[in-house]
Amino acid sequence: MKATKEIRELSAEELNQREAELKEELFNLRFQLAVNRLENPMRIKAVKKQIAVVKTIRRQREIEANK
User: How far apart are CA 1 and CA 61, in angstroms?
Assistant: First the structure.
């Protein structure tokens, strides 16, 4: 996955920033869904997956640092 490789290259601060951006986007998408303005409902699933990838990479780094 190309996006995963790009995310893995980010620093810890950039990962935190990326996660915040994705959470904000998810909030906006859910709001659009509630008011029936969402054009692509599959985008919600994609954003949630990206958030999970960011959290997984951050957790992997935390585990490696503790070893």
Answer: 19
Helix (H, G, I), strand (E, B) or coil at 38: coil
Q: Where are the domains of the chain?
A: 12-66
Q: What CATH number matches the domain at 12-66, 1.10.287, 3.40.190, 2.60.40, 1.10.10? A: 1.10.287
Cα-Cα-Cα-Cα dihedral sign, residues 58, 61, 65, 67: positive
Residue with tokens 């951050």: 58
- Displacement of CA 17 from its chain's centroid (Å): 10
At 65, which amino acid appears? A
| pLDDT in the model for residue 54 | 96
DSSP state for residue 44 in the 8-state scheme: H
pTM for the complete prediction?
0.90
